[in-house]
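Journal club prep, notes for RB
We'll compare a predicted complex against what the paper describes. Inputs for the iron/sulfur cluster case:
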Amino acid sequence: MGGTLDQLLSEVRLCAACAARLPLEPRPILQMGREARILIIGQAPGSKVHTSGVPWADKSGERLRDWMGIDETTFYDASRVALVPMGFCYPGAGASGDLPPRPECAPLWHARLVSHLPQRRLTLLVGLYAQAYYLKGRGKTTLT
Ligand code: SF4
């Protein structure tokens, strides 16, 4: 397939693969630089993150940064940390909170994106959707 990471990110930002099933216009929200050593795979943006366009700019992001012991400057440095959710666009809300990440998203994009992280040393799977997808049932139900 080839191409640079910038080309791939441009392609992602134009994605409308599941637009018909989203409550709002597609707005893929992720962060990646080729030099990043840490990859964080979360679930999907909530409505607050959809509005701001900034990944993890909510309470869960504060908790994650506390847990990791890193500040916002480091967290939002794409050359250090890649932020790639299971679904890049806000999936909408149901009776008991936000809906799951769109299932089309990770199979469509993740492998290609991760192939652009040659220096990746650590991958954090945050949340049940990321763990279920990557650990195929071997995950535990806690963050760690
Ligand atoms: S959630 Fe993923 S697959 Fe769906 S439109 Fe957004 S980027 Fe494309």
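Talking point for the session: The radius of gyration is 14 Å.
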